[in-house]
């Protein structure tokens, strides 16, 4: 079984990636990178990552979030986070990254925040 499963869905011009599993060094981080870069290459610049199903994330996974956020922003897009688990939220608070990412607990609110 894959370390990280990604399911893509559309809500208007926003692409939502539902993540299930672990975003860790190796396959999980690479899968996330490839999915987001593929969306970017396809011209999909509004991306919402639904992290409700993510059980673990390590420093490599955090690094991928930051790298993808930077890449999407540089290309004029937006990458936002949805449904942070307590564990992920605490990690982002400790690393001061919660101030970098726009994060939401409600999908409708997250979708309406895109410009």
Walk me through the structure.
This protein has 115 residues and is of the alpha/beta class. A five-stranded mixed β-sheet has the order 1-2-3-4-5. The longest helix has 16 residues.
SSE order and pairing:
Layout: E1 4-11, E2 14-23, H1 27-41, E3 46-57, H2 59-74, E4 78-82, H3 86-94, E5 103-104, H4 107-112
Helix pairs in contact: 1-2
Outline:
The protein is an alpha/beta fold and 115 residues long. Helix content is 40%, strand content 32%.
Descriptors for this entry?
4 helices; 40% helix; 5 strands; single chain; 115 residues; 5-stranded mixed β-sheet; alpha/beta
Q: State which percent range the strand residues make up.
A: 25-35%
Query: Helicity range of the residues?
Result: 40-55%
What is Rg?
13 Å
State the end-to-end CA separation: 37 Å
Give the SSE order as H and E letters.
Answer: EEHEHEHEH
Please list the strands of the largest sheet in the order they lie side by side: 1-2-3-4-5
Low-pLDDT parts are none
Largest sheet composition: 5 strands, mixed
Could you say which overall geometry the principal axes of the C-alpha atoms support?
globular
**How many DSSP-defined strands?**
5
Structural class: alpha/beta
Mean pLDDT: 95
Discrete helix count:
4
